[in-house]
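Anyone have tokens for P-type phospholipid transporter? Sequence:
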Amino acid sequence: MARVRRRLEKLKLSTLYSFALCAKGSTEDHSKIGTTGFSRVVYVNDPDRHEEEGFRYPRNEVSTTKYSLVTFVPKSLFEQFRRVANFYFLVSGILTLTPLAPYSAVSALLPLSVVITATMLKEGVEDWRRKQQDIELNNRIVKVHRGNGSFEETKWKYIKIGDVIKVEKDNFFPADLILLSSNYPDGICYVETMNLDGETNLKIKQALEVTSDLQEDGDFTNLRQIIKCEDPNANLYSFVGTMDYKGMQHPLSPHQLLLRDSKLRNTDYIYGAVIFTGHDTKVMQNATEPPSKRSKIEKKMDNIIYLLLCSLLGIALLGSVFFGIWTKADLRNGETKRWYLRPDDSTVFYDPKRAPLASFCHLLTALMTLTCMMKNQISQLMLEPQI
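Reply: yep, here.
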């Protein structure tokens, strides 16, 4: 009875859970390792070997900004002129440079320049704040094995594929890791994935039995493993891989995968091997680029401007065609029907001998006049949603 009692004292609830996980087994097809889409090779505790073998893996530095110093002006201008109203005001302002315009170019281009400049500055400030957040994230500190069983504090952005890192309680994982061991004898740890899927309940991960006894810093001095797994993808809930350790192949599953931006909870520390860094991590694979902020009102405004612009062009073109026809037919037997227009004193507009040119000038004049009217309508439409 005493022997049975001692065995029960050694039995832990975590051990029961570990046994349940092992009973389930892995449902993933590990025969795909080495084929297309499953070609990632990681030399654990030997990150420099990847370059010797010809592997080019990305750095662990991430960027979520929308612009750079080189692309800010062109991309920001493109974003501004995606709004049809801005593009229309620009074109109408350029047309005012002709002598046929009923208003000056300054009255059209100056307000547009002020609005576009203010909006570009706002976009720049928002992107700069994203840059500051990226800098803070990339400069976080984690302990990385540097040989002889010593772990040195290293910034996240300097982590490489194959590094063995030590993450302590209530800290985030800096990259996608394979769990090697934890402070628990059976190699389990508790993970909070709220930043990934919004769930607040803790998830349990478990290391392989062959590595769960690596619980001290000095145990990693001579550690050498080869991990072969799937290529980077956006699926948070699947993982296929194998670990070559001490001459034996051990299958890996999502139970051993620790994802970047998830947090270690209720566990003093864990040791993990880095397999995905930077934009190869699953959280970055699921990330989207900063969206272009366009409200429903702006989209509706674009459709209204398209309609008004087509109407303007149709009216101006139709009127100019008929004006050219009537101007050409105005001269008969050397006399003009519309004598009151004084075509004999006209250089362009009413000269029957140059009817096509007169029609074109009439088109420009009509466009200018209708543009002025249309600008007033658009300005009223843009002010209405703000009232």
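The chain has two domains: 25-59+141-285, 294-387.
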